[in-house]
Amino acid sequence: MILERNIPVPMRDGVRLFVNLFRPAADGPWAVIMSVTPYSKDKLPDRLGEFFMRLSGVKFGKLNRSRFAGFESPDPAHWVENGDAVVQADVRGTHKSEGQAGVLRPLDAQDYYDLIEWVALQPWCTGRIGLLGVSYLAMSQWHVAALKPPHLRAIVPWEGVTDLYRELAFHGGIPETKFVPIWFKNRIKGGRNRRFPLAEDFLAERERHPRDDAYWSTKRPILEDIEAPALVCASWSDHGLHTRGSIEGFERIASKEKWLFTHGRKKWETFYGDEARDFQKRFLDFFLRGVDNGMRGVPRVRLEIRRSYYQQDVRHEDNWPVATVRPERLYLYARTSGLEQEPVEEESSVQYRSTGKKENDRATFSFRFDKTTELTGGMRLKLWVSTSEGDDLDLFVVIRKFDSGKQEVFFSGFNGYERDAAAKGWLRASHRELDQSRSTPLRPWLNHTRIQKVRPTEIVPLEIEIWPSSTLFAAGSTLQIAIQGHDGAKYPAFGHRKLVNRGLHTIFTGGRYDSHLVIPVNQTSSLTGRSNESGCSG
C-alpha cells in the first residue's frame, strides 16, 4: 500500500482542502472509497481522542482495524487489499484544510461535491466513487448525495443523523447538554485550522435557535433528492443520536436500490466486524467495480431482533417498515399501574416527583406477555398530564424489558453503555404541537416551531415519539413503560441537565383521559397478555 499525504484540492471558491490517498502498489486505475472528516485524516487512529472517550466511560468493544484507520473511517488496509483506493479529506477549516469551519453547512456539501468530481478525473481513479463512514462521516453523505455528483456511484451512511434539531441538539425540544458541548468544543472547535476563525459557534447558535427554524433547515439534507444506491446502517443501541435519522434516511431517500443493515450492539465494533464489512464489500464491489456477486438478489433489510445484551436473532426482510408489523394499543391504568388491551373506563391518576432521582421519581405501567411477541419499529405514547408548579414539563420515557423472574433485561446503549433499556423518547410539553400530516400510527411528528406553555394543574394531552427498535419479549416477560423527569440512566457523555421541571407531575388515565402506548407488533407473533398489576421496579 502506498500513502500519499496532503494532496491539495481546490474548491470552486479557491480554498484548498487537503486529502490523503491510500492506493495499491500495483498499477491503477482504481475505484475510490472516500470520506470527509472533521476528526483529522492524519490521526491514524485517533489514540488520544479515543483514550479520553474511554476515560468518560465510552466502551468501543473489539475494533478489528489496522493502524491506518482514522476515527469512524474506512480502514485503508482492508480496502486497498480489496483492490480499491481510499481517499480521506479534512473538512473545510479543520486540521490541514483551509477556510472557516462550521457544522454540516451547505458549503461543506458543495466542497464534498467538488472533491468527488476532482478525484474522479485523476488518472489513478476509474471515475467511480463510493462513500463510507460512521456518524459525521455518514451525515455528510446525506448532504452531498442530495446534490447528485455525476461520478458518485454508491453511499454507505453507517449510522448518521439526518435532522440535527430533533436527533442531535434537542430531543423532543429538550436540549442535550453533555455530548453536544463536548463534541463541538473538543472535536470541531478544537480541531479547527488555527489560521482561520470559526464560521459559526454551534453552541451559541443552538441557544439562539431553540425552535425548529431556518437555521436548522439549512442543516437538514433533502433526503428525497438522493438517488444513489445506498447501504444504510441503523442501530437500536444509539437512541439519542443516530437511530432515528438512519431509519428516516432509509425510508425517505429516492434510491431505487437501497439496503438497511440493523443491529443492537456497539457501533464501532460492529462497523469494523466481519459481517458488516463483508456486507459493505459486497455492496461496493457490485456498484463500484461491477463484480457479479448477486447483490441485487440480497434481501433489502437485515433485521436484528434483540433478546438481551448481545443476544439476538437475525432475519431478512424485503421492506422497512416490516410488512407484518401492525400498531396495537395498550391503555395506561393508573390505579393498577397496568397496561390494558381494552380502553379503561375508570378515571384515575398517579403522581411522581419531577425533580431528583429518589423514591417516587417516576410512574410505571406494565404488561406481561402470555405469548412470545416481537416488537419492531417506533412507538407512540399519548399522555394526559399536568404539573403542580411552573409552566412546562420535561418528560423522559423509558421502555424496559423484564424476564419472567421480574429481573430487568439490559441492552447495549449510547456510547457502548451496557445496561440500557429497550427504547427511549423525550418531550418538553410546550413543544407538543403536532403535524398531523406527517404523523403515523407509530410516530407522532412534533413541529417544534411554536411554544405552548401550560398552567399549574392544567391537564393537557401530549404525544411522545419513542425511537425505533426491535426486541423479542418471550412468553412470561414484561414490558414496562416508565415516565419520569430525568434521563433513564447515567450514560457516558450524554444527557439532559437544563430542565424545566418543578413540583409534582400527574398522569391521568381512563375515561376522558385515553392515555395509551402504541406498540409495533409483528403479526406473526400476535399480541396476547395481561396487565401486570403488581408492576416491576425500574
Structure summarized in a few sentences:
This protein is an alpha+beta fold and 538 residues long.
Question: Could you characterize what this model shows?
Answer:
The chain is of the alpha+beta class and 538 residues long. 18% of the residues lie in helices and 32% in strands. It has eleven helices and 25 strands. The strands form four sheets. Strands 1-2-4-3-5-6-9-10-11-12 form a ten-stranded mixed beta sheet, sandwiched between helices. Strands 13, 14, 15, 17, 21, 23 and 24 form a seven-stranded antiparallel beta sheet that branches. Strands 16, 18, 19, 20, 22 and 25 form a six-stranded antiparallel beta sheet that branches. Strand 18 and strand 19 form a beta hairpin. It is globular, with a radius of gyration of 24 Å. 51% of the residues are buried. The C terminus is likely disordered.
Q: Structural class, judged by helices and strands?
A: alpha+beta
Low-confidence stretches: 534-538
Largest sheet report: 10 strands, mixed
Put simply, the count of helices is 11
Shape: globular
Strand order of the largest sheet: 1-2-4-3-5-6-9-10-11-12
Quote the distance from N terminus to C terminus: 53 Å
Oligomer: single chain
The overall pLDDT average reads 96
